[in-house]
Write a structure and sequence with these properties.
Layout (H helix, E strand, L loop, with lengths): L11 H16 L7 E7 L6 H9 L6 E8 L5 H6 L6 E6 L7 H10 L4 E4 L5 E2 L3 H11 L5 E9 L20 H8 L11 E3 L2 H5 L9 H9 L5 E12 L5 H5 L1 H28 L4
Helix pairs in contact: 1-4
Amino acid sequence: MACKSRRRGGDRKATDDRTRNARSRSSKRGRPPRVSVVMPTHNYARYIGEAIDGVLAQTCEDFELIIVDDASTDNTLDIVTGYRDDRIVLVQREDCTCSGVAAINDGMAIARADLIAVADSDDISVPERLERQATFLDRNPTVDFLGGGLLPVDGRNEPIGRPVMKPVYRKRPERYRQALLQGVPVLIQGTMMHRRHVLERLGGYGGYISSGDTEFLLRASRYYTFCNLRSVLIRCRQHRSSVTRQSGARLKKLHHRIFLEKEHMWVQKELERMRMAPQG
């Protein structure tokens, strides 16, 4: 099914209760949308308005925008609740994870669409983002994860560098997993769209503060196919308060070693399972 397009020049129980309430409200809104956009946020009042506007301005109008507030202490919630668009679903967390990982999981848990996109609350999606990605996935049913490029911008949304693109390995998709195992990022989280069915096996993001997307994609690369579009999908903020800058390269390197050990253990278990499987 193609996107409907508009052409244009605290505690875990409390969180679970809120998620169930949001799911109940969402389920009363009729048929599922084409795309569910999950936007985690924490104290991004300065930027979140532009991030929301970027999603609402999509040429693909058939979506829901699930905003998960990770216990913000600024006026982020005031800005979000000021919107009167029935495609917006708000989930509030009481305990801050300050990484977005748990918030993304909460959002994905109530997503109704077969395609789920992630949008960071300090970035701006280009108007054609959802339409380009949904159309590509419609035409390429063997691809499960799809990313794209970004344009770095400053706090005033002014470009500060050249577009950043990720590799496209259409004929050799196994190279995505090879690159991940070497510590090379292959998909930009803020541009990512994936099929809902992958969550049945993966379950969602792990609990790593600075590298949750890397761990998620490493597990996904065991079973699923990746691809990137050769086009800019977001205008990406470069500022000191971002999680990536705060976490630091040293912590990322430590997490990568942990991930490699986990992948080695998984491979060994798979080899043992195959060895013990009945021959016939």
